């Protein structure tokens, strides 16, 4: 952990009704990089990113973003600072149109001021969403809903975009497109924190990856290096 990290998480603890799901978790994300959290089901990945996004209050530890302590702030305050979560399961508003879903991503003060420009930008990035701007979110395909969830996140002008299981339930071709998109957003300057079950593909693009077990980081390193790690091979790659 260094003073130049965009995000740093130290000793994080969080849980549900007294049961801790995250217990003393440490990791950091350097600006402009892609960081990946991997781990078995129930390891605490979603809880971790929900805390960073302000959706769950931590019971211990410190979160710093861009030099400021932001521990325990709520979602609007985190979004205002530039942290946006694209949640697991997409959480598209089914009875709202594509365009209305996008506008829901732009409720913070900074992004609201640039709404027209940001809408043009996401429609240029996702022409399919532009074509279907009047279609109900719930009638979009799984891949289109994932696209819409990412586009809605971009409407908030994130500096750190957190994506929780973006490839879940998608066809292999759409998974490849989603990983390509994540690379592209990163190349455009957005720092990425990715939670993934798809360990092989996510480690390939990770500048830094963290393996979580029982609410703690048990292993970390450059993504491609971890692909060769004996524990990672046995636990996640079926080798
Ligand atoms: P997955 O890959 O299955 O999504 P995960 O690593 O993201 O798993 P979490 O969803 O953070 O793990 O769950 C960590 C622990 O917290 C699990 O034991 C889970 O059962 C528990 N948990 C998660 N959400 C809740 C909740 N709303 N109420 C009670 N316990 C919860």
> What profile does the largest beta sheet have?
6 strands, mixed
Radius of gyration: 17 Å
Widest beta sheet: strand line-up: 6-7-8-3-9-10
User: What is the approximate shape?
Assistant: globular
Assign the CATH topology of the largest domain. Rossmann fold
Give the domain tally.
2
**Ions, cofactors and other bound molecules:** adenosine-5'-triphosphate
Overall structural class, as computed from helix and strand content, comes to alpha/beta
Structure description:
There is one protein chain. The chain folds into two domains: 1-82 and 158-238, Rossmann fold; 89-156, no CATH class. It is built from eleven helices and ten strands. It has helices at residues 45-52, 75-81, 98-104, 109-113, 115-125, 127-131, 142-154, 172-187, 199-205, 223-226, 230-236; strands spanning 7-16, 19-29, 34-39, 60-65, 68-69, 83-86, 160-164, 191-195, 208-213, 216-221. The chain has a six-stranded mixed β-sheet with strand order 6-7-8-3-9-10, with helices on both faces. Helix 3 packs parallel to helix 7. The longest helix is centred in the last third of the chain and has 16 residues, at 172-187. It is globular and about 45 Å long. The model has no long low-confidence stretch (mean pLDDT 92). The site of adenosine-5'-triphosphate has 10 residues, from helix 1.
């Amino acid at each position: 952990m260094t003073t130049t990290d965009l995000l740093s998480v130290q000793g994080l603890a969080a849980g549900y009704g007294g049961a801790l799901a995250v217990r003393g978790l440490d990791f950091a994300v350097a600006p402009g990089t892609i960081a990946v959290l991997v781990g078995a089901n129930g390891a605490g990945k979603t809880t971790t990113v929900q805390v960073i996004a302000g959706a769950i209050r931590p019971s211990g530890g410190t979160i710093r973003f861009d030099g400021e302590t932001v521990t325990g702030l709520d979602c609007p305050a985190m979004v205002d600072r530039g942290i946006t979560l694209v949640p697991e399961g997409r959480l598209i508003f089914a009875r709202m149109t594509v365009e209305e879903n996008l506008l829901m991503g732009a409720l913070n003060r900074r992004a609201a001021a640039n709404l027209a420009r940001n809408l043009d930008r996401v429609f240029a990035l996702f022409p399919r969403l532009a074509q279907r701007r009047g279609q109900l979110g719930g009638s979009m395909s799984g891949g289109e809903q994932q696209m819409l969830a990412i586009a809605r996140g971009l409407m908030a002008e994130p500096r750190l975009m957190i994506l929780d299981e973006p490839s879940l339930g998608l066809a292999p071709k759409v998974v490849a497109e989603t990983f390509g998109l994540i690379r592209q957003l990163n190349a455009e300057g957005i720092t990425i924190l990715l939670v993934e079950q798809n360990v092989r593909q996510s480690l390939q693009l990770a500048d830094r990856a963290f393996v979580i077990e029982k609410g703690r980081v048990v292993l970390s390193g450059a993504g491609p290096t971890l692909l060769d790690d004996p524990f990672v091979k046995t636990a996640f790659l079926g080798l």
